[in-house]
Inverse folding.
């Protein structure tokens, strides 16, 4: 069982909007205090600019706190992936999560396959798994096809069913299509909320088990614990009206998610 937190579980507590945002080092300590084993540093672009000394210090901070690392970036160009791998190795991270697109760079599937085939052997040699996240810019069917064409067991999918709702994919369909290829799991619940004036809806986060994610189905299909797949908590938490209310809610959601996941036995 390897349950952890993403920096997205600290989205507001790390933001300037709360007045005294947590540093990455403090997030490591908070992760340990929450009882989680892993911190996935996700979409933290300055991480690729860290020196070897800075990365070594961060790894030592994690080791002292009993927290292992995973890292999350965007892009699949071979040169990008080489740097992502360097960061992962320096932090002792066993998983790199990425996305096919990075900003305006949106390689076609055949280009992504070619780039990933170049990088995959180096990830395999380092013992690092590469997970391509399900997200709305690319159908799950297309993402699975990319993974299958790369044909390397260390290159799989970071499954996040919530992201695919924006593409009008039903979460269970996303889960079914991706399940066999999952190497990393993002766990967050979500619901639709009526917009002000009852005109339209917003897709927002909610406490795990209270929304539209069928957590039991997700775990039953993916079986993360028997397959050695890490389970990473994220949130889509709307601003709660004040900094204090928002950070308190964020911390409460995290504690709730970890407790709920601890009761799952799959």
């Amino acid at each position: 069982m390897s349950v952890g937190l993403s920096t997205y579980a600290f989205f507001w507590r790390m933001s300037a909007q709360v007045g005294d945002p947590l540093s990455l080092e403090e997030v490591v300590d908070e992760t340990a205090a929450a009882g989680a084993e892993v911190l996935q540093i996700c979409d933290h672009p300055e991480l690729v600019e860290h020196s070897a000394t800075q990365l070594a210090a961060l790894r030592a901070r994690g080791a002292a706190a009993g927290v292992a690392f995973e890292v999350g970036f965007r892009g699949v160009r071979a040169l990008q992936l080489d740097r992502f791998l360097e960061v992962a190795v320096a932090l002792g991270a066993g998983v790199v999560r990425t996305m096919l697109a990075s900003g305006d760079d949106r390689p076609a599937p055949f280009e992504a396959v070619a780039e990933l085939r170049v990088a995959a052997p180096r990830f395999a040699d380092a013992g690092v798994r590469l997970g391509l996240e399900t997200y709305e810019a690319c159908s799950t069917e297309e993402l699975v096809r990319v993974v299958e064409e790369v044909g390397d067991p260390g290159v799989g999918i970071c499954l996040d069913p919530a992201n695919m709702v924006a593409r009008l994919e039903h979460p269970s369909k996303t889960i079914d299509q991706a399940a066999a290829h999952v190497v990393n799991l993002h766990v967050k619940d979500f619901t639709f909320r009526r917009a002000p004036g009852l005109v339209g809806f917003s897709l927002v986060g909610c406490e795990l088990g209270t929304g539209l994610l069928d957590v039991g189905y997700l775990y039953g299909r993916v079986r993360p614990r028997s397959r050695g797949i890490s389970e990473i908590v994220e949130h889509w938490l709307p601003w709660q009206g004040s900094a204090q209310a928002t950070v308190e809610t964020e911390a409460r959601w995290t504690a709730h998610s970890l407790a709920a996941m601890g009761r799952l036995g799959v």
Summary: The two ends are 10 Å apart (CA to CA). The chain has a mean pLDDT of 96. The domain at 3-262 is CATH 3.20.20.150 (TIM Barrel). The longest helix spans residues 243-262.
